[in-house]
Amino acid sequence: MELSEQNVKKQRPVHLDLQTIRFPATAIASILHRISGVIMLFAIGILLWLLNSTLTSAEGFASVQSLFDGFVMKFILWGILTALGYHLLGGIRHLIMDTGRWEELASGIASAKVTFALAAAFSIIAGIWVW
Fold first, then answer.
1. Domain coverage including residue 99
2. Which family does the entry's similarity section mention (predicted)?
3. Residue 27 — very low, low, confident or very high, per pLDDT cuts 50/70/90?
């Protein structure tokens, strides 16, 4: 049985308000894991540039060291460490799920919330260490 073109158009949503959609904790954990991976991809470039600058000469080392006295570089370093910490915790969560554990909805939500809490604690610790 075929649907007419008019019926298909009526079944489509007229207005999809993305602000009213609530993602479950498991979806947010997965999305943040991907975002932290992309952040770390760009962070590798920044860190390699900094490493190269420190290894070229004593002046290069001193200039990079002076960069770390500023707020912007400390904030970037804190962001990199936060992304690394979350990605590590999220990756461990995914590895555990790959073994067949935490696959039920309740345990998946609980593990996502624990990951968020541990990542927030790690972020605070990283911020204290950087500043």
1. 24-130
2. Belongs to the cytochrome b560 family.
3. very high
Sign for the CA dihedral angle at 38, 119, 117, 93 comes to positive
Q: Write down the pLDDT at residue 30.
A: 93
Find the length of the chain. 131
Residue 12 above 60 pLDDT? yes
Is residue 94 annotated as involved in ligand binding?
Answer: no
Distance CA 76, CA 45 (A): 13
pTM for this model (two decimals): 0.79
Q: Domain for residue 7, yes or no?
A: no
CATH number at residue 103: 1.20.1300.10
Answer yes or no: is 11 within a domain.
Answer: no
The CA–CA distances, whole Å, from 127 to 36, 77, 79, 81 equal 17, 9, 9, 9
